[in-house]
Write a structure and sequence with these properties.
heterotrimer, A mainly alpha, B alpha/beta, C mainly alpha, A: mainly alpha, 11 helices, about 75% helix, B: alpha/beta, Rossmann fold, 6-stranded mixed beta sheet, 10 strands
Chain lengths: ~290, ~240, ~325
């Protein structure tokens, strides 16, 4: 029983991070129907932001967190302004591939600049474990989960309580109607890319407390984020939140009961099963 | 002689919303029958069920003596029902000729034969000079013609035309009516959904009126125009507005 | 028509004699890679470019081809030539199984499913000791012969084999494009519902496209295994290989007969050149350029190089006042 509880706890902790990553992705998709394949690369750059701030200025990842958010927010915004912007009326295939090109570009640029080596940040402010009963909590993961919850909450608050957030939501629901009501959709698209980037930048910085940093780190997270978004229903923020937690738990269950090597394979298998049975994701969505 | 198409007690629900309720009608070979009704009356849903894009929740659709309500669109096409789409569905990155060849290939495996047939159909439908245009580069009127041409190429016995005149200018509408007469002259039975009633009245043998998913009237154009319920449901405001 | 045929014959003759004139081993190696990727990409294009189902899992079929022929050879001494065909058949079977769930999905979902399935199969191979697991398999050296599909003294035989295989693949694409299949594939790509209404059993024809594609991709995989004499899941079925196959087609022009070859002619020399110029430190640099190119192509010329050339030809003809064969430009 304890092992199950432990799995659920560990799964939830990483699950919140998955949710945060997926929320960034699903926000972009919801607002403009474009899948950002470069999302994992954004995450990687968020991690490297924290890494280099640590190497050069001895910043702790928690201190780098806001900087990483801003940096990747800008990256998202720039990606929209200079790249994605150009394919809004292009054939769907071009829309799929443009961010794919961006992913290939960013990931390999990082490989070229920083070599494929695995790096870690040593002596982070948060480290170690503690126990409640038989259940072990890894503190960096707990912090990552808490940070993700906070930022997810902030995004929810922004989307529902602020004027701009509601305009963003309106754009997601109906682009043309939003335009007619005087919403500058171009600005909204850019904002979605910014927030999407910011979310994944935050996740990146939080991950550096306990995860290896390397140029292709985004690939796995990218796939997991897609799976999360698809399970939650493309464009659904609530869906992404729930699906992220589910995937965290499934991954941990599979890791323990089937074998660590198969944990992602199991996640993908469940993903395929679900989308074949329920093509709109678990939560419906648009 | 048995009717070409028999729709019997057909009902279609979409998660609780009833689009069609116990609809019954028949279409005989060689007729031109029109299906009219206000927006949301369930006309396109009825078409989609006959063409196999949707299947009815209950009821039966018999074509040429064969039950087709559970069949898929491509099977129904092979049996001899072709349709056009209300929102044009031309194959955008293919030429006009290629669009029609695709239809013609439903009756042959030879591209050469299909090409010959497609060229003939383009001549009939007045698109021959534009045969090398990409589908996406056509005007709306030409796209609607191409919709008809694609459908004709599958050699249907029954052709379902979904609002092929909506959005056309009066001149284009007249041309479209001419085209309908020509197609009918080839021995093809026509079943037409149309909003432009003035154009469709004189060519129709019979008119079926749907309102809120139910059939409320059926008869010759004169009978339908004078039917109380029809005037109330649909024609009323339209005709009053005009006079 | 005749002009085209002459052009093709001359092109094939040049390709035949080229490595006899310029014999540098590296040069031949690059040529081999060009045709290998052009072949895999041409096979992919039947599903991706013509039928419009963007698969990011074609490396599975490549890997199945490589593994089938290699395992048959290792355990039962079956010549890789027969192994190649068996691999093709196995790939077709896998394609039909994979297609069953995948073709229920559209657009992004299909794409994600193919990535997911690819990763699942790669994971299985990585953890399957009977097929060498993560260590992979070294194909034992045998006497150099056509039957053994091994040549040690020169790369030339490999070149002629892959050239022939590519030409066959090209011909398959050519005949598909000219036949009913080609029309049906494109109709499915353009609008599935409209295709159904015109009598096309869309599900069946997607399977047909996928099966042909899988068969040809598996053959490429066997060739690769025999050429490098070593296979492991991370070299014959990684996501990056699926990606490369797709990139070649996008750059060259999806849905154009010459697209994959054009893409391969640009991308492969580029990657080999950067590898030479920058050494091992720049081993990934060509991918940086790939990424940029893909972005630029998507932004400005989504029809790829082949589409660009067609447009350019069209404009030239128009400028010359000659007869223009229709407005068949893809913008």
């Amino acid at each position: 029983m304890d092992i199950i509880l432990q799995i659920i706890v560990s799964g939830l902790l990483i699950g919140f991070v998955y949710s945060l990553i997926a929320i960034g992705l699903t926000l972009i998709y919801g607002v403009m129907d474009i899948v950002n394949f470069a999302h994992g690369a954004f995450l990687m750059l968020g991690m490297f932001t924290a890494y280099w701030l640590n190497q050069l200025f001895n910043f702790d990842p928690l201190l780098s967190l806001p900087i990483s958010i801003i940096a990747i927010y800008l990256l998202g915004w720039l990606s929209y302004k200079f790249v994605v912007n150009k394919v809004l009326n292009a054939p769907p295939v071009a829309q799929i591939f443009v961010t794919f090109g961006l992913m290939v570009f960013l990931e390999n640029l990082a490989l070229f600049l920083w070599s494929p080596d695995f790096r870690i940040i040593k002596d982070t402010f948060v480290s170690g474990d503690f126990n409640i009963g038989e259940i072990m909590f890894n503190i960096p993961k707990l912090i990552a989960a808490l940070g993700s919850v906070l930022i997810t909450g902030a995004i929810f608050w922004f989307m529902s309580k602020t004027r701009t957030g509601r305009a963003l939501k309106a754009t997601a629901i109906n682009r043309d109607a939003a335009k007619l009501m005087g919403i500058n959709t171009d600005k909204m698209f850019a904002l979605a890319w910014g927030i999407g980037g910011g979310a994944v930048g935050a996740a990146g910085a939080l991950l550096t407390n306990f995860y290896y940093i390397f140029p292709t780190v985004g690939a796995t997270f990218n796939l997991l984020a897609f799976v999360t978004v698809a399970l939650g229903g493309f464009g659904s923020i609530q869906g992404a939140l729930v699906a992220g937690l589910l995937i965290g738990i499934i991954e941990n269950l599979a890791g323990v009961f089937i074998g660590p090597a198969f944990k992602y394979a199991v996640v993908f298998a469940i993903f395929i099963l679900v989308i074949v049975i329920r093509p709109n994701g678990l939560m419906g969505g648009k | 002689m048995a009717p070409l198409l028999t729709v019997e007690n057909v009902t279609k629900e979409f998660s609780g919303i009833v689009a069609n309720k116990d609809v019954n009608f028949e279409i005989n070979e060689g007729e031109i029958v029109s299906l009219i009704g206000p927006n949301g009356a369930g006309k396109t849903t009825m078409f989609s069920m006959i063409a196999g894009a949707l299947s009815p929740s209950s009821g039966s659709i018999v074509f040429n003596g064969e039950e087709i309500s559970k069949k898929q669109a491509f099977e129904i096409c092979h049996l001899g029902i072709a349709r056009t789409f209300q929102v044009v569905r031309v194959l955008k990155q293919m030429t006009v000729l290629e669009n029609v060849i695709v239809g013609a290939l439903s009756r042959t495996n030879s591209v050469k034969i299909a090409r010959g047939e497609a060229e003939n159909i383009l001549k009939v439908t007045g698109l021959y000079l534009k045969k090398d245009y990409l589908g996406k580069n056509l005007t709306l009127a030409d796209m609607k013609r191409l919709e008809v041409a694609k459908a004709l190429a599958t050699k249907p016995k029954l052709l379902l035309l979904d609002e092929v005149m909506a959005g056309l200018t009066p001149v284009e509408t007249n041309e479209a009516v001419e085209l309908l007469r020509e197609i009918h002259g080839m021995g093809i039975t026509l079943f037409i959904v149309e909003h432009v009633m003035e154009a469709i009245m004189p060519v129709s043998d019979r008119i079926i009126v749907l309102d809120a998913g139910k059939k409320i009237a059926e008869g010759s154009p004169e009978e339908v125009v004078n039917d109380e319920r029809v005037i109330k449901a649909y024609l009323g405001d339209r005709y009053h507005a005009r006079s | 028509m005749n002009k085209k045929l002459i052009f093709l014959i001359v092109a094939v003759l040049i390709l035949f004699f080229l490595p006899l004139i310029y014999k540098a081993s590296f040069f031949i190696h690059v040529l081999i890679l060009i045709f290998m990727f052009a072949m895999a990409s041409q096979a992919w294009d039947l599903v991706g470019g013509y039928t419009g189902q963007i698969s990011f899992g074609n490396a599975i079929f490549f890997g199945i081809g490589a593994y089938t022929s290699t395992l048959l050879y290792m355990h039962w001494s079956v010549t890789p030539w027969i192994g190649m065909l068996v691999g093709g058949v196995v790939a077709v079977i896998v394609a039909l199984i994979v297609g069953y769930p995948a073709f229920k999905l559209k657009g992004h979902y299909f794409l994600l499913a193919t990535i997911g399935i690819g990763e699942i199969i790669r994971t299985l191979f990585l953890n399957w000791p009977a097929v060498g697991g993560a260590q992979g398999i070294f194909i034992p050296f045998e006497k150099e012969s056509f039957w053994n599909f091994q040549f040690h003294s020169s790369k030339l035989p490999y070149y002629y084999i892959i050239l022939t295989l590519f030409i066959l693949t090209f011909l398959v694409s050519y005949f598909v494009e000219k036949s009913k299949l080609g029309f049906y594939f494109k109709a499915i790509r353009e609008d599935e519902d409209a295709a159904k209404a015109m009598g096309i059993h869309t599900q069946k024809f997607k399977f047909v496209a996928f099966a042909i594609s899988a068969f040809l991709t598996a053959i490429t995989g066997t060739f690769y295994a025999q050429y490098l004499m070593y296979i492991d899941p991370n070299s014959v079925m990684p996501f990056m290989l699926s990606t490369q196959i797709v990139l070649v087609a996008i750059l060259g022009g999806m849905g154009y007969l010459f697209g994959p070859l054009l893409g391969s002619l640009v991308l492969i020399p580029l990657s080999e050149l950067t590898r030479v110029l920058l050494g091992s430190s720049g081993s990934g640099f060509h991918l940086v350029i790939y990424g940029l190119l893909i972005m630029l192509i998507s932004m400005y010329k989504p029809a790829g190089l082949a589409g660009w050339i067609q447009e350019w030809n069209f404009n030239k003809k128009k400028a010359a006042g000659g007869e223009v064969d229709g407005t068949t430009i893809n913008s």
